[in-house]
Amino acid sequence: MTASSTNRQALIEQFQQVRTFSESLCKPLAREDYVIQSMPDCSPTKWHMAHVSWFFETFLLKPSAVDYQPLNPEYAVLFNSYYNAVGDKYPRPRRGLISRPTVDDVYRYRAHVDEHVLDLLECADDRALPDLAPIVTLGLNHEQQHQELIVTDLKHMLSHNPLRPVYVEQPLNPTQALPVLAVHGLGNRSAGGLAGAAVLGTARRKLVAIHTIGLAPNRSG
Predict the structure, then answer these.
(1) Cα–Cα distance for residue pair 67/64, rounded to 1 Å
(2) What separation in angstroms does the CA of 167 have from each of 5, 25, 217?
(3) Domain for residue 93, yes or no?
(4) Any idea of the CA torsion for 208, 213, 216, 221, to the nearest 10 degrees?
(5) pLDDT at 121
């Protein structure tokens, strides 16, 4: 196996791991949980999941994938955040008012983007891959940031519920979070903060021990 093919495969695997981890964060959710915006500085989970796909579509697929066609051209405005240079955006404080596209539509959008990104990475010429790789890595770091935002925004939303629901029940043994870290970590970003949030349901629960465990694998990154 050549160095070029090794790098290509590593990039593909990283892309799949981060994208899969975003969806794993949503497995505990009911459909109703995806759409609530608990304050103007938070965003619905549905919006986060679409926005990170918009990033790959806007900055990777549209400039680099020949004949790429967006699933819905209107998503370019709806899921833009603050990237003024690439076009208009929907107001952040009103993201919770958007019931359509549905959650299922957003997952179809993610699948559409994933299919075309993987096709691009698999078929790109060896000379083109070094130009694509930094954009993919930037997009993955961006998605990891939104993974953290998904959890913090969800926990803020759940904190307003008098029934005191939790996002995920804390495992009896905090080391159960470690398989999640193995999927998430890319070395440059701290997996610890996300791990702590991912296994805890409310702010009342202690984060320190799980964060300490989560940070250890990144020391060699």
Answers:
(1) 9
(2) 40, 10, 25
(3) yes
(4) -90
(5) 97
